[in-house]
Design brief:
five-stranded mixed beta sheet; six-stranded antiparallel beta sheet; mainly beta; elongated; 1 helix; 191 residues
Length: 191
């Protein structure tokens, strides 16, 4: 069953020809391996590519707590009903936090498609805090991030990297650091 039209705005990605089941043109050449770049959406609602050692903002989502909005930029893929899955692993105790969903990549006109900055449902929203899972403070500590994209035809691409979560909203930094501290307990007052 196809994902809705989330993230499906934009024009033909070019270079791919053909049309997939949701009416969006293929991005690049789907007969080639998927090329994947990892992005993170900040408090300014703009995504930026991230790489090894990047500081990744933790943001207050609509449901509360803190999450990292991890997105994708990809080519050589059918853009419809793509499964995006993000995993954050504590390197000291092996504990993980995961989020995944189906979404449509938004064509950027150059043969690539992306998560859509204005649509949080096109991102893996990896829950980081309240911190009742990590052996350390979540902020300022190195964790392993893995992002996997799976096309409807089963083709996959994955990237792993070490990243450092940071409190990404200056106005909420004290509450973020409180909730993301090692040993935080639910109901603790954060001033």
């Amino acid at each position: 069953d196809d994902a809705g039209d989330q993230g499906s705005g934009g024009q033909n990605g070019g270079g791919g020809g053909g049309s997939s089941s949701c009416g969006l043109a293929a991005l690049g050449d789907p007969t080639q391996p998927i090329e994947l770049q990892v992005t993170a959406r900040g408090a300014d609602l703009v995504s930026e590519e991230i790489g090894e050692g990047a500081q990744v903002p933790m943001i207050l989502p609509p449901q509360g707590g803190r999450v990292m909005f991890i997105g994708a930029r990809a080519t050589n893929i059918e853009p419809c009903a793509v499964e995006i899955s993000g995993t954050l692993r504590d390197l000291s105790n092996g504990e993980v936090r995961v989020d995944g969903r189906k979404m449509n990549l938004k064509a950027t006109g150059d043969g690539w498609g992306t998560s859509t900055d204005t649509d949080i449902s096109t991102f893996a929203m990896i829950p980081t805090c309240p911190n009742q899972w990590a052996a350390t403070d979540v902020f300022g500590t190195t964790f392993e991030l893995e992002l996997t994209l799976t096309a409807k035809n089963g083709q996959k691409a994955s990237k792993k990297m070490s990243i450092v979560p940071v409190c990404g909203e200056p106005a909420n930094e004290a509450e973020c650091k409180c909730q993301c501290t090692k040993g935080y307990t639910l109901g603790k007052t954060c001033n």
